[in-house]
Amino acid sequence: MALDEAATRSYQEAVDHLRRHHALVVGKELLEKVTTLVGRCWIAEDEAEVERFKQTHQWPAAEVAEVEKCVVFADGVMVHTDDAWHEARVGTVVSSDRQSRQHKSSTVRLGSLEEFELELQRKAWQMGYGQSVLRAFVADGSHWLWNMASRRFPGAVEVLDYWHLSEHVAACAAAWFGEGAAEAEQWRKNVCGHLWEGRPEEAFTAVEALRSRSPGRRQAKHELITYLSNNRRRLDYVRYRSLGLPCGSGEVEAQCKTLVQARCKQAGMRWSRSGVESLLRVRAAIKDGSFEHRLHRAESRLTYWRCKYERRAA
Fold it and tell me: Where are the domains of the chain?
């Protein structure tokens, strides 16, 4: 109960809520210590699985059986840690089994990109990615995301987030026709409509047809053409819809907000990397439903980690 409260509210609010509503008296420092301890323990277990994979090149058996479709999402969100803003990388995996039941799990890491890539790959295989009939990777246009997809998820259908694409088209339209102008909105709808309906060539033609001597307008046009060209093979939205794949990365964007920002970006909050990463590991387990199982399964491991934690503190 205490861990659930700590993962949901600020530590002080959790202490007050436990006292008022559950007659459970626990100090703020102790609550933070316990939450950090559990999170560190689970992160260490996850990292041990990654190390075994590096040696054997085999992930443990999937926890979700008979997976028909597995979709991996990834994005980043800024968190204030160690007196500076750092990017927390967020990954979400959504699997659908033969009974059309959906299974979802997320991970957050603030370490190196390689750490995040391997952890997300581990999470995907845990959710049945390796046995899935249909695999996909959905993200916005960031280069690091697509580089990760090619390294860790080869063979996945790559989908560029349509709403992110629409924002790029809207930015070009505003530069050419004016912010909020009816002509800008009409041009945006025209280009996006071509892309949504599977006519990318017509979309490219519409952008190429823009002519101006204005450096600002020409730059906006160049940026949009470059963006579309770099993501050319990720624009087949008609096919994605026919396969039942999402055309947007809303799943992971929601996790950035509800998993990370809602708990860690409240007024005045300052974190250490270790503290926030441990807390988010517990919060992710609560949100994906694995919390109870993992907590009861790992009591002996927690005892070991408690001793190790206290020796470090001493």
Answer: 2-58+272-313, 67-160, 163-234
3-class state of residue 155 by DSSP: coil
pLDDT digits (tens, 9 = 90+) for 131-167: 999 999 999 989 999 999 999 999 999 999 999 999 9
Quick one: DSSP state of residue 142? -
- At 171, phi and psi to the nearest 5? -65, -40
Give the list of residues 6+ apart from residue 142 with CB closer than 8 angstroms, or none: 76
All residues at 6 or more sequence positions from 284 whose CB lies less than 8 Å from its CB, including other chains: 105, 106, 107, 108, 259
Instruction: List Cβ neighbours of 26 (8 Å cut-off, separation of 6 or more).
Output: 2, 15, 18
Considering the domain delimited by 67-160, tell me its CATH architecture.
2-Layer Sandwich (3.30)
Both structure tokens of 131: 């046995």
pTM: 0.90
